[in-house]
Design brief:
about 100 residues; alpha+beta; about 30% strand
Amino acid sequence: MVDLIYSEESYQIFGACFEVHRNLGPGFLEAVYAEALMWEFEERDIPYEKNKELSIEYKGKLLSKKYYADFVCYGKIITELKTNDALTQENISQFLTI
């Protein structure tokens, strides 16, 4: 088992995500899952910000381009939604970058 930095918070987020998937199943657009997940976060009192704008720093300088996280939960955990059948290398690279 992997040790998570924010294990309790992550457990709560995972639970909300699994509940949404269990109820909706596969096949919807990301926006549908995002709306359901917002409802689930609220039901579970998980604090979140949707489409949170994050600055990108390159060699000590802020870039003008921004990164928009699907959700930032608890003010510190980036939660990205994916509706692919499987994770792609691009998805994995995005997860590792943020």
